Amino acid sequence: MSLFQLGNKKYNKATEWVREHSFRIESLTECNGEDFKFLEKVLKDKRVVWLGENGHGIAEHSLLKTKLIHFLYQKMGFKVIAFESGFVEGYSSNYMKEALSVNELMDKSIFSLWKTEETYPLFELIKENSDLNLIGFDLQPSVKKSSIVAFINQLNINFPSEFIRSIQKVENTAISFYEQIGIYKATRKKVPKEILNNYFKTKKEQDKLIIHLQTMLKYLKREFERNGLSKEYAVIQKALENRQLFLNHLASRKRDFLKIRDRVMADNLEWICNELYPNEKIIIWAHNNHIYKNITSSYKPMGSLMSPKFERQSYYLGLFMYQGEVTFDKKTTQKLEKPPKNSIEDYMNHNPSPVSFLDFSKASLNRVNKWISRNTVILDSGMIHTFIIPKKQLDGIFFVKEVSPSRHI
Predict the structure, then answer these.
(1) What pTM was estimated for this model as a whole?
(2) What InterPro entries does this protein's entry cite (predicted)?
């Protein structure tokens, strides 16, 4: 047998293993809870489920995650959804959700890139169920107008007017500089010196103001406790910490800021799970690049920064795709590159159904599935060739054959 024939035989055996061990969903738009029942066995001992996505702006990924969350909430008792969006924005909007419309709940909580037709049913579910809680874990602001003062005004606490004015000023400053500096960072352009000088001057003032706010908050701690608002006190305290870190590092080099961001997001998630919701099962919504575990390079995503205990409680679930078009920046539509042979996308594409799931966590390694324990190519965002060790970086994957741009509301 020639080397070419031998290679083809190994490849065919590998794709046959994928087909034999995958669960399939025949219609993403029509599937319901029964189609995800196989996850009950896979996730039965897990407290945290990480839901990745291979790029923001993929309609089918958002729709699939929305349906998965419905299942996890209704059938498996998951009651906290932690979004890759602002920490205080997520908590404060959830706190006030009874008075908000579904559109307002989305506007006041998540990054606008997820305000789509595909996620709308998820926010209907959050609004309609008081025991289903939304929170963010990002240190970056995710909205253009902070609702922290509206949240604070809901509390039965006699806040000094100075506290209200000062915390609003911090929020306004963070959002303003995020917009001014972020637009240059996003396009990899140099931030104008005038903006930077103003930022560094303002940063010192805001740092002093946040320290003053933290001192005022400590004087109010007993009042919070008397009113049964210890959790709300801790959230405001954590919100101030996040804003201080954000303002202190916003102008750092992009790679340095991304490292800091993942570190803070990891810390926020640990705090959310251990302190804020210690008895709840939690779903994490984020990009694949944030959820990979066991990354040992100098740049570690938040999934690789979690404590061993947190990792043992977790199931890391990446989402991938094969072909179609996406809109990552809400404006420009891009066609996906065809995945190369022996990539994750190529192996998974041998499943006949439009959506499939493959569990790595309980897979026994053998000669035909060696690719799950070796460096295997993937297309990050459907275009950038990179490598992961599937079984090491993830516990399982969902795969969608054909994708399209998210439909923004």
Answers:
(1) 0.95
(2) Emycin_Estase, Hydrolase/PRTase-associated
Amino acid at 278: P
Expressed as residue numbers, the domain containing 337 is: 3-75+282-403
Supply the CATH number for residue 350's domain. Answer: 3.40.1660.10
SS (H, E, C) 168-186: HHHHHHHHHHHHHHHHHHH
CA distance 321 to 205: 47
Q: At what angle do helices 230-249 and 254-271 cross, to 10 degrees?
A: 170
Strand boundaries in 101-196, DSSP class E = 133-138
Question: How far apart are alpha carbons 269 and 262 in whole angstroms?
Answer: 10
Q: How far is CA 10 from CA 21, 22, 146, 330, 387, in A?
A: 17, 18, 56, 41, 20
Residue 83 forms beta bridges with which residues? Answer: 136, 285
In this prediction, residue 187 has a pLDDT band, given cuts at 50, 70 and 90, of confident
Mean pLDDT of 119-132: 98
398 and 297 part of one domain = yes
Q: What is the pLDDT of residue 306?
A: 97
Where does a domain end: 243, 276, 309? 276
